[in-house]
Design a protein that fits this description.
The chain has 262 residues and is an alpha/beta fold. The chain is 46% helix and 15% strand.
Length: 262
């Protein structure tokens, strides 16, 4: 899995620091998502989630682009029945369900399905020159991979309505100001910065990281008091783990902890 397959539009590299990089490489279409690419991304996520050596997954694109959108030429003739039969939304379901932290390293365009793929991640690192948008309205449809709902919960109704109803794209700095992007970095450095973040997360206790991700995801749709109670319960359960004991002992002994995920 470490070596990319020649001519394959999706490759995976596993770093010794405990994270993996999934790279889209379809330069002739600016990494646009077709059924093959979406299937390969889903397969890569499933395999990496099952790999105990991988604690964090980075999604990025080659050639100066993240994902310019979904392949319109392939999608233009599809019927509703074909969408269901071909499971055109499966990639998003797999990414959404991944229990490991996901980081999007964005250069260039993250539009349509590309923006939705980034939004499905837990952290988004964007180059200053990158652009985000949901332009589906310009081709007669609407976002179908989580765009309206993730943006609604991230930037609110009024900004979401503006982006999805006009199809306008926004710059990384504006996306950051809206709370849509985690960090903005110089052009060409998104993957480098994402790797630095992934390396730090990979050194953290895996059970606590997984619990944090679960609380963040579940908390989007649950009442505050319910989530405060669940957060406290999850916090206390971590005191029955080896990682909790290792972390606190290491702190008191002034040494670096070695977490095992137990």
């Amino acid at each position: 899995m470490n070596a990319p397959t020649p001519n394959c539009p999706v490759s995976t590299r596993i770093d010794a620091q405990g994270f993996a990089v999934v790279t889209l490489n379809r330069p002739e279409r600016r990494n646009a998502l077709n059924l093959e690419v979406k299937g390969l991304i889903a397969e890569a996520i499933v395999q990496l989630e099952a790999d105990p050596a991988v604690r964090v997954i980075i999604l990025t694109g080659a050639g100066g682009y993240f994902v310019a959108g979904t392949d319109i030429a392939e999608m233009a003739v599809m019927t509703p029945a074909q969408h269901r039969e071909l499971q055109t939304g499966r990639m998003f379901e797999i990414v959404n369900a991944c229990s490991k932290p996901l980081i999007a390293a964005v250069e260039g365009y993250a539009l349509g399905g590309g923006c939705e793929l980034a939004l499905a991640c837990d952290i988004i690192v964007a180059a200053q020159t990158s652009r985000f948008g949901q332009p589906e309205i310009n081709v007669g449809v609407m976002p179908g991979g989580g765009g309206t709902q993730r943006l609604l919960r991230t930037i609110g109704k009024y900004q979401t309505a503006l982006l999805t109803m006009t199809g306008n794209a926004i710059a990384a700095e504006q996306a950051f100001a809206m709370g849509m992007v985690s960090e903005v970095c110089p052009e060409g450095q998104a993957l480098e910065q994402a790797c630095a973040i992934a390396s730090k997360i990979a050194r953290q206790p895996p059970l606590a990281i997984r619990s944090i991700k679960e609380m963040l995801n579940v908390g989007l749709d649950a009442p505050l008091q319910t989530m405060l109670s669940l957060e406290r319960k999850t916090f206390t359960l971590l005191f029955d783990t080896e990682d909790q004991k290792e972390g606190m002992n290491a702190f008191m002994e002034k040494r670096r902890p070695e977490y095992k995920g137990r």
